[in-house]
Amino acid sequence: MVLLSIILSGYIWGSDTRFSRMEQDSNQPAIKKNVGQKSLREIYTPTQVFYYRDKQLYQAYDAKRNLTLEFSKFTKKLEGHKINKIKSNSTFYRQLLHDEKYFQLTFPDQITISLFLPRANKYLDGEFNRIFVSTKDKKYLYLGDDRNNTLYRVYANVSFKNLYKHIQKAASQIPISLEKLKDGFCVSYNKDQQMAIYSYLTYKETDAYFVYKLLDSGNPTQRNADDYIAYYNGIYQRLVAYKKTHNYEFVDYQQNKIPNTTTKMLTDSLFYVRKICLNEPDLRFFDASNNTISYQKFVEEYPVFLPEDNNVRAKVTFTRSCMQINFNSLDLRIPIPTNGAKQELQATDKIIDKLLQAGYKKSYLEKIIIGYKVCHDNNKTSNLIDLIPTYYIKINGRWHSLDAWLNNNYEVHIPASQQGGISNGF
Fold it and tell me: CB of 142 within 8 A of CB of 134?
């Protein structure tokens, strides 16, 4: 294994292509915050697909066929002006969620209509996280917001018949139900799951690389401390490189305005993520809250969480004093063949019971998902990691693994108005 990693490392790090790409990226203008429609559609894309069969809802996935990408190809030319907001309430929304005549695609969090429909001329900042696609009628599709039951009807006139066939034949078919939590409906796995463990060869960029990409100076000042090194471009820009963890924090005090629309906040955040050249093909939008936009790498439709508290690949925070990027340099480069090891995960209702027994109220739970936890194996070289399937829960705007919530005394501050119980899923 060590010999294999050395050979693969030599191939990656000695590749002229990688350095050529770095040189090309460095010539991109840093003033116009334009990332292009192709980039937007690749980053702000659905990550999961669901459909009904014999009155049972299934999560469908096929490693050989990118179902969400197929959907995006169908919808990129939709006419945005043919969209209407329709009357909806929790009862109607639940009926649509449970309607067997529709398959569904979901985003990790809410995006805006203008990102999905670039030609839209109304409801530009309307938000949604779920798409309902009829298995029979090609005329309309629906955009839904789980948080408030809002629905938008979009004229499509596109047949999704072939895509629906591919969904029905997907290699992975997991029976699920939907659980109502604070932020919407989450996937609830009805039975214990056996999920694959993956191994990856990784690469970490140097401090010098990010200094070059982020600081607008050829001669930054430097300060060394026990746990970090700080680089400064005058008083306006600072890059802090934390030792051992490969975490970075970039602050730009010149960018001191909060974007005035949700769409602009999403696109501006992606511009800054692109500026540090996090260009993995599986990097996706993951979460948006409190003027902070987060991005994660996805493997087999599940997000990859890094160790410790800074567990996202990149997050961009906008304030009235500065713009801040927190990111990690760990890059998953090449999957390594494994012996077929699997991790057993309990059914979701058992996970919720554990949280309740630990003292967390149901109303605290914003989201529950399955993700991959990055683990360094002591028997491997430092550039090889394992991805272990794990439950992750969002409480109080923070993502942590199930074990972290159960074993640490995290403070949870919930407004009194939100202390009431939240209804169960159907």
Answer: no
| Residues 53 and 145 both lie in one domain | yes
Does some domain include residue 85? yes
The whole domain housing 94 covers 38-170
Residue 417, burial from CB neighbour count under 10 angstroms (0-12, 13-18, 19+): exposed
- Give the predicted TM-score (pTM) of the model: 0.86
Residue 26 included in any domain:
no
* C-alpha pair distances (Å), 229 with each of 2, 187, 215, 242, 337: 31, 42, 14, 7, 36
Q: How many helices (H) and strands (E) does the chain have?
A: 11, 25
> Final residue of a domain: which of 333, 367, 391?
333
pLDDT digit string (tens) for 322-358?
999 999 998 898 898 888 899 999 999 999 999 999 9
pLDDT in tens, 19-36: 233 233 333 334 456 665
N-to-C CA span, the chain: 48
Question: What is the token pair recorded at 243?
Answer: 């030792």
- As given in the structure block, the two tokens for residue 41 are 């559609």
Residue that finishes a domain, picked among 268, 302, 333: 333
Strand pairing report for 302-305 and 365-376: parallel
* Residue recorded with tokens 């683990």: 375
DSSP state, residue 149: T
